[in-house]
């Protein structure tokens, strides 16, 4: 464990900052009261339509086209009726967290540094990080952290590695900036080789006997239990001590990563076999690979992970935090994504012939699993609970816990893609309300958040409110870097999703379903009892204004991260809830991947909103 004071640049908890925040609070309270005293709309650009009178039970639209301009009668968006309702406004983000020029500079630097530090934990002879290879780490292995004691994280976890390689895959294509008219991407063959080595290593791990079972050999019950082994020694030997076994999110996360890699290649018009050849020609691969093309990759690696999910999705397993045996939203949603992507792969390659399995039998099994799992996810499992407006991560322990867990958000982020129409996407009300409740709960639980607790602003987030793991043993839980980064990524991805859909933003005006949106908008209270919905038409100024508000909220979470990284931009697993000092496993790979992914989504969101610089905010 290392302890490093928060960067002094932040200066966020100085007396002065505090006075400012209290003043802000007073101003906000006065503004809020002011709104309450004025039942009539402040600006007449709000109009209410009755639809067909509302008697058909359909929702009434509250359409807003511009939050800042007065109503222009020449361009009414809908018919005003005699009823007046309180106006809905964007909630101003507290100035306490307004992103400064310095923040932008920090982001640009940290974006690159995070990736560099991530690669420091990947054993790959092309990076000359001789360190790892000379410490006996096998080529293609991703270590969880270089920390060897208090805590010892010097292992490879199937889950952490699969999540980390996603960032490498997303960074594999860079825009050719000398091409002015088209977006042309250039393959970074070094990073492509890193992915190949990761998959090569996965092939090895899949075939190792271990305490969970015997690799890809079917056991007596035909269950493939061996793939549920959560962690391995860095030299690819099985870990022989007791542990939370099995963890059934590893194989699906791995196949989602590999299938995502193939999707990325296809989008760039590249074949998997071409990538192998290119890497080999560039002398980026030192050894042999067990597959020479996409078909063999599927048959030798992806197939087994899919089989594992098919056979084990109904079984209990330990959660991603390795603590609770049961059914977990995170585990189930990544399993569902793997099955769905696997099925799509088969459908997209009807021409492939398979040596080791019957194509239609596999397709049918995957199809049936998709249907059953969808039922399970939305009905059977209890992830959706009529008494909660957020998603319950582990329903079986709801008697002793709130059910809130950042895992829900991470699961939604990791399974997001535009091809598979996944449920529980980043605009899902249960996913968004999970963020809302985590913010409210952790704003209180972690003392470093107290100066911000009443402000409309991002706070430091941890795994789940009842957490007692302090990074080494159990005492008190702390905020985690990867949790706080995931909150910001969710908000940036929500922006990407909204632009991708190119449809009106439609938000039911009730606090139960749309509680998250009360972080973005003021004035939902007056609509609570009836079926109104806020409509922000695609392409209007209000749409952009809303996106900017979401973006700003995302920034305020990253700003928390900025306050707590070390001077050199290093992160550990946690930061102390009282002092903000780094705590737990140093240089945690997942922390860097989470921050990198968030910055990556941020850059895309920024382009879509058309923000050239912070000055435009
Ligand atoms: C309400 O808005 C939605 C989304 O734009 C639209 O599809 C629907 O037709 C509107 N309903 C009425 C009654 O105007
Ligand atoms: C912010 O950046 C400016 C210009 O780079 C610098 O002069 C200033 O000291 C920075 N402020 C803080 C608080 O770091
Ligand atoms: C980038 O685009 C320019 C202009 O078309 C081209 O000359 C150059 O070869 C491209 N770079 C790479 C690495 O493909
Ligand atoms: C490929 O990525 C590596 C690691 O980030 C980087 O060092 C290298 O410069 C990149 N290569 C190209 C051609 O951009
Ligand atoms: C693939 O893994 C095998 C077994 O560990 C190893 O011998 C080989 O060198 C690896 N291939 C590459 C390209 O790293
Ligand atoms: C790379 O090319 C060499 C020479 O053609 C060949 O022997 C080797 O098998 C290739 N390696 C891979 C991983 O394709
Ligand atoms: C989320 O977005 C998708 C498509 O982008 C859309 O079909 C779906 O209705 C949206 N869900 C919600 C709850 O808004
Ligand atoms: C974290 O990694 C950096 C190199 O990127 C190293 O200088 C530092 O000592 C590491 N921290 C710990 C505690 O291992
Ligand atoms: C290679 C190795 O150590 N295999 C072990 C895997 O776990 C089984 C138990 O299921 C042990 O018997 C093997 O020794």
Automatic annotation (TrEMBL):
Keyword Coiled coil carried by entry: no
Alphabetized GO MF terms: glucan 1,4-alpha-glucosidase activity
Listed EC numbers: 3.2.1.3
Reaction equations catalysed: Hydrolysis of terminal (1->4)-linked alpha-D-glucose residues successively from non-reducing ends of the chains with release of beta-D-glucose
GO CC annotation terms, alphabetical: fungal-type vacuole
Record-linked InterPro entries: 6-hairpin_glycosidase_sf, 6hp_glycosidase-like_sf, GH15-like, Glucoamylase
Gene Ontology biological-process annotations: polysaccharide catabolic process
Membrane-crossing residue ranges in chain numbering: 16-37
Key words of the record: Carbohydrate metabolism, Glycosidase, Hydrolase, Membrane, Polysaccharide degradation, Transmembrane, Transmembrane helix
Residues annotated as domain GH15-like: 126-595
Pfam name, any one: Glyco_hydro_15
Family assignment from sequence similarity: Belongs to the glycosyl hydrolase 15 family.
UniProt-recorded name of the protein: glucan 1,4-alpha-glucosidase
Species for this entry: Torulaspora globosa
């Amino acid at each position: 464990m290392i302890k490093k004071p928060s960067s002094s640049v932040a200066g966020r908890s100085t007396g002065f900052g505090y006075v400012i925040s209290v003043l802000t609070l007073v101003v906000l309270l006065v503004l809020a009261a002011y709104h309450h005293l004025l039942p009539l709309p402040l600006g007449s650009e709000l109009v209410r339509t009755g639809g067909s009178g509302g008697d058909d039970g359909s929702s009434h639209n509250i359409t807003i086209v511009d939050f800042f301009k007065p109503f222009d009668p020449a361009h009414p968006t809908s018919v005003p009726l005699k009823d007046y309702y309180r106006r809905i406004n964007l909630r101003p983000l507290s100035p306490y967290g307004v992103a400064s020029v310095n923040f932008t500079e920090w982001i640009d630097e940290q974006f690159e540094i995070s990736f560099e530090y991530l690669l420091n934990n990947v054993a790959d002879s092309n990076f000359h990080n001789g360190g790892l290879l000379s410490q006996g780490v096998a080529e293609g292995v991703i270590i969880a952290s270089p920390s060897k004691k208090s805590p010892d994280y010097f292992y490879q976890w199937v889950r952490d590695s699969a999540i980390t390689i996603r960032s490498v895959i997303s960074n594999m294509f860079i825009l050719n900036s000398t091409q002015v008219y088209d977006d042309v991407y250039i393959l970074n063959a070094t990073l492509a080789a890193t992915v190949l080595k990761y998959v090569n290593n996965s092939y090895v791990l899949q075939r190792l006997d271990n305490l969970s079972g015997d690799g890809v050999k079917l056991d007596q019950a035909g269950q493939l239990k061996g793939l549920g082994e959560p962690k391995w020694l860095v030299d690819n030997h099985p870990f022989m001590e007791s542990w939370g076994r099995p963890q059934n999110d590893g194989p699906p996360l791995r196949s989602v990563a590999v299938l995502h890699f193939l999707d990325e290649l296809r989008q760039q018009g590249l074949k998997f076999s071409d990538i192998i050849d290119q890497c080999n020609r560039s002398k980026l691969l030192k050894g042999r690979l067990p597959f020479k093309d996409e078909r063999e990759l599927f048959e030798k690696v992806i197939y087994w992970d899919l089989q594992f999910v098919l056979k084990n999705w109904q079984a209990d397993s330990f959660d991603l935090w390795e603590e609770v045996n049961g059914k977990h939203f995170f585990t189930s949603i990544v399993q569902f994504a793997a099955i769905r992507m696997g099925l799509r792969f088969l459908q997209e390659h009807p021409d492939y012939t398979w040596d080791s399995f019957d194509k239609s039998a596999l397709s049918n099994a995957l199809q049936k699993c998709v249907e059953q799992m969808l039922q399970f996810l939305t009905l059977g499992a209890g992830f959706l609970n009529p008494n909660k407006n957020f998603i319950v991560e582990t329903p079986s322990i709801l008697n002793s816990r709130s059910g809130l867990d950042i895992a829900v958000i991470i699961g939604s982020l990791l399974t997001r893609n535009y091809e598979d129409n996944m449920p529980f996407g980043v605009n899902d009300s249960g996913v968004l309300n999970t963020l809302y409740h985590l913010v409210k709960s952790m704003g209180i639980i972690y003392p470093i958040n107290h100066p911000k607790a009443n402000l409309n602003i991002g706070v430091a987030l941890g795994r789940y409110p009842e957490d007692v793991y302090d990074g080494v043993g159990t005492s008190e839980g702390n905020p985690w870097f990867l949790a706080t980064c995931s909150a910001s990524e969710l908000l940036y991805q929500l922006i990407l999703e909204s632009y991708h859909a190119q449809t009106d933003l439609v938000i039911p005006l009730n606090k139960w379903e749309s509680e998250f949106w009360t972080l973005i908008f003021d004035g939902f209270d007056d609509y609570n009892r009836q079926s109104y919905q806020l409509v922000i038409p695609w392409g209007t100024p209000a749409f952009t204004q809303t996106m900017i508000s979401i973006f700003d909220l995302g920034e305020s979470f990253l700003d928390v991260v900025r306050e707590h990284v070390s001077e050199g931009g290093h992160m550990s697993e946690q930061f102390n809830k009282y002092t903000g000092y780094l705590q737990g496993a140093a240089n945690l790979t997942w922390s860097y991947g989470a921050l990198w992914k968030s910055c990556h989504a941020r850059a895309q969101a920024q382009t879509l909103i058309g923000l050239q610089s912070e000055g435009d905010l």
